[in-house]
Each structure stands twice: as structure tokens, then as C-alpha cells.
Amino acid sequence: MHYGGDYNPEQWPREVLNEDIDRMREAGITMVSLGIFSWSRIQPDEGVFDFEWLDDIIDRLHAAGITVDLATATASPPPWMHLKYPEILPVTAEGTTLGPGSRQHYAPSSPVYRRLAAELVSAIAARYANHPAVVMWHINNEYGCHLVADYSDAAAVAFRDWLRARYGSVAALNAAWGTSFWSQMYSDFEQVLPPRAAPYHHNPAHRLDFHRFTSDSMLELYLMEKEIIRASGALQPITTNFMGQSPTVDYWKWAPHLDVISDDCYPDPNDPESFRTVGGFHRDLMRSFAGGPGWLLMEQASGALNWRPANAPKAPGQMAALSMQAVARGADGVLFFQWRQSRAGTEKFHSAMLPHAGTDTRIWREVVALGETLAELPALPETDDTARIGLVFEYENMWALSGTDHPVGIDYMEIVKRWYAAFDAAAIGVDFVHPAADLTRYDLVVAPQLYLLTDAAADNLRDYVAAGGTLLVGAFSDVVDEQDAFLPGGFLTRLGETLGIRLEDFGGLVPAAEQGPGERVVRVVSGDGAISPFEGELLAEEIHVTRAEVVARFSGGRRDGDPALTVNSAGAGRAFYLATIPTTAATRALAPYFAAQAGVAPLIAELPAGVEVARRGSVLTVINHSTEPAHVRVAGKDIRTGERVEDPELEPFGWVMLRA
Ligand code: GLA
To answer: Is 142 annotated in the active site?
Structure first.
């Protein structure tokens, strides 16, 4: 179990560094992430490297038995670079060049940035590949966090190359993008630009490809650095820190290129549900990207942040509770941003393991206690295939739906998280799955939204049902192909037969937050009362049953009496279709219904509000994230004491890990 944080020794004089090592030992630190923002310290000018300070600190950490996750330092180019090579700077869609003075001010496609980053990484890797303290490599930092896309000239050149490789010919590009619409036909790839600011909405296929290109261009950077590290002879695992789902970078595509999946996670202490919608969500996503336990919580905060409008401290015990949540859901390490609170700079108000107020602080005591707890934990299961439900999450849908010009604005992530939180609150574990991945081990697959459906995903889902799986497809699915175009023959062209329905109209509703007249919420009632009446929003689709059975119907409003929830037997399995988007409350009520339909039982029969339960192989963890004590009906052997526990009362932020 790794324990530690980002370490930025370049911010401190020697005497503080001496104290750091002693304090790290006191806190039980096993690993630090070193040098993430050290480029200007390592390379004060082109061709000039200063490694002595880094040699010194790595050697001293090593002597103290602390290992190093060594960064490649490419996340924040040094000030000499933009003066000499202004073309490394990124540009917004509006044409504003983003200057230095912050971080991530590099154009991912800039050949000059790539050359200079490669020189830096080569020098670092050559020097430390065989250093015994270095146990991991940390490439760059949070790709796409601040710079979600670059529209510079360098990006334009690289985007055209990417399009040439994807389409081969301008004719194929024109066909894929539907450019006969609004006189957009290209006669040469040179005419294509990134989707820079335009008088009105961009061609959605163009936008979507630019999202794909942006993710791929950052992946190229990551792979460039990875290859340099490997070429130096380094054998340590290589990672880069993910950020939950990321708006920019397709982590499904990236994950196979990381030796260790790692995540940065900052649930808001002001939000009592954030332990679930951010905390649990991130952890399960990482376990899914990693294909099981063994990922790292690379960054979290010990207390307050600096970057939200309101930065609440964590409550006593909350930091440990969220740390154990990560371990319970597969993490093999808990690290923080950062080791010592900065004295200056943007993040000086950001909490750290060692607070500016010193060691006579609650945070320090909790940091030391957590180090002890993690050190004393027995070995935990290294594999886990206990989740019976696959929840479909996918980037191309997120990007395609983030565009304009749909029947109603749909926040894809909000809806995926709604389903996630509903299963989690019902004590039902899920894995996140890509729709084209192997789904055979799941009893239930839930696809809340598959607006964009590739043929590969469609075949996969059909096969899953035919082989005996239970599938739930949410409204506004199987609408477009991978180029964001309708297919001939209407909607649900690939899944309609499996679902036993056809779709005539999407029936957009007025979003709850919008002013003005119109239908907002629709009521759905089941014929036999098997499901309590519930409410849907955003869409009330007009579907027609071809073979399916109607489970529930719209009641009132323009779709009164029409099917709202259907089920169809196809092959050895069954496929449900929901013709509206259930509200948050309705989703909470429906998740256990669908789980039961697929024979999936909750981990605990009654889970009190504010409590989570998570399974990692044979280990069941229950954590009380609320500020009230919680009585939980569960039994097992406490993995720390070996004693039998039955129906424990958990203190606020208390937790217990049980072996069944
Ligand atoms: C991210 C970054 C860190 C730091 C923290 C602050 O996780 O990777 O460098 O800025 O946010 O919360």
C-alpha cells in the first residue's frame, strides 16, 4: 500500500527539506511524486540542465527508505521557452493565444514543444532509469485538465494529418461529415481547420472528430514520453494521473497504455452526496479502467481546496473515510496533493499533508493516523469480478451530446452518474463498461444513453442479449452512427429488433430549469403495479411496440397511455427500453427494480442514507459518510482485529472492513 503525496522540494530551502524527510518518516510515507512542476528548475535554459538538487533529494529520500514516483516535468514549460518559441503556446477557438504564467500552456501538436519535451524526458530518464529509489514514472500531469482543446496552427496541421489517416481521401471526409449541407464541401484537406469560432453552430461531425483528434494528440504526447523512458532502459511501471472521467481524453483508449491506472479525486465536502457521485464514481471508474484492483489514488486533499468558489475543510475523519473508500474499491495506494502546503503561488490555500499551521493540527494528526492504518492493513484481494452489473460509459457519446442542435439539451455525464449513484445507494456494485467490450460476465447491462452507436457496439449488445443477458437501453439511443449521422430506415435501426419496438419521435420536453410554457415532467405508471409510478424528464418518446411487452405507460400529458417502458425477449435474454429519462428520484427507485429483474441482489439489504458498501473480492467495506452514527445490518470478520462483527454502529466517518 503506497502512502504519500506530490513533493515539490524546489519550493523550499535546504533546512525545510531536511525536516521534510523526518516528518515523512513520522507520517509513514512510502512514496512521493517528485518533480511534476520542476521543468524551469531542471532546465533553466535550452540545453542547460541542473540535476544536482534532484540527485540530492532523491538520494536522501532513498536513504530514508522513501520511494519515488518520478515525474517527467513536462506539464508546465519554463519561461524561456515561449520567448524563444512562441509557437508552443496554445490558442483558443476564439483565436486568443494562451500565455505563460499559469500551467499547461503548451500546444500538444506543436513540433517544437514535442522536441523540447522529448529532450527533457530523455535527460531525466537517462539520469534516473536505474536509480533504486525510483519505483514509478509519472508522465506529465492531468492531460487536458485546463487545456481542453488547442485550435492553433500547429493543431490545424496535425488535425489534417489525423483526418488524412482516418479518411484517406477528401471524398471520404466529405461523405463522413455530410459536407453537402451548408456548402461545406472540401476539395483539399488543406482547407480544413479546427472548429474555430464561427458565426453559428459547427458541423457536429467536424466537432466530434476534433474531440477524437484532441484525445489522440495528447495520447501521442504521452506515448512519446513513455517510449523515451523505456528506451533509456527503465523498467519501472509508468503512469499519468487521470481525473475521473475527463472531459477531453478518452481514458478507455488510454488505459491499456498505462502500467498503473492512477487518479486525482476531489469530492466537495460541502456536498453530502459527493462521496458517491464523485468519490465512489471515480473509484469504480478507475477499477474498471484497470480491469480490477491495483490502481492508485494519486491525488486527493487532506482538507480544503483553493479552486472552488467555496472551499470547505473536510470534517474530522472524512479524509480517512474517503481514503478507505478508494482502498475498498481497489486502490493500492493513497496519495495527496501535496506533501507540504506551499508558501506562495496559486495553491497556497490548498491543504496538504503537512499544513502551513504545522504539526500541532488536526490534519497532521489525521495524516499520521492514516499512515498507520494503511501500514497495518492485511493484504487485500488483488482481483475482483464481483460486480454483476455493467454500466455503459463512453466518450464519443459524451462528446456528441455536448454539441448543439438536439431535441433537448442532455448532460450525458449527469445521466450516467445518476444511474451510478442509484445503484450505489441501493448497495448494488457496478463496473463501468465500454459498449463494445466483452460483457458476457454481467447479468445486467445498463446503457443509459447510446445516442451514438457504432456497429461494433450494436452487434455486441445484440449478442449479449441473445446469449442470455438482460439489457436496459435508455431513451435517445441508437440515433446516429459514428459520424453523428442518421442511418437509413429511421431510428433504433440496429437495436430495434432486439428491443421489439420502433421509434417515431423523441418528444422533447422543457428542461426543469427553463422558464416559459411547455411540458416538463411526465408521469409513468405500470399496469400491474410492479413499479411505483415515477417521473421522467427531457424526453417523452413516441415508440411503437412491434414485439415487446409494455411494462409501464405514460399517464397524462401529450403521450398519455403510450408505452414508456417495454421489455422484449430476444434469444436467451431480455431487453428493456425506457422511453423517457427518469428523474434522479425515479432512477433511485428504478435501479433496484432492474437489478432484481436480472437476479442481482444488493450487497446489504438495507443501506442507511449516507452509508456506502463496497466489495473488493472477498472483502466487504462499509463506510459511514454522514455526520450521524449509522447502524448497519451486516456481519463478518473484521480484517484488522480478526473478530466477528455483527450489525455494527458506525460513528460519523467510521468504517469497517469485513471478510465474509
Ligand atoms: C490537480 C493537480 C495538482 C493540483 C491539484 C489541486 O490534481 O494535478 O497539481 O493542482 O489539482 O487540487
So the answer is: yes
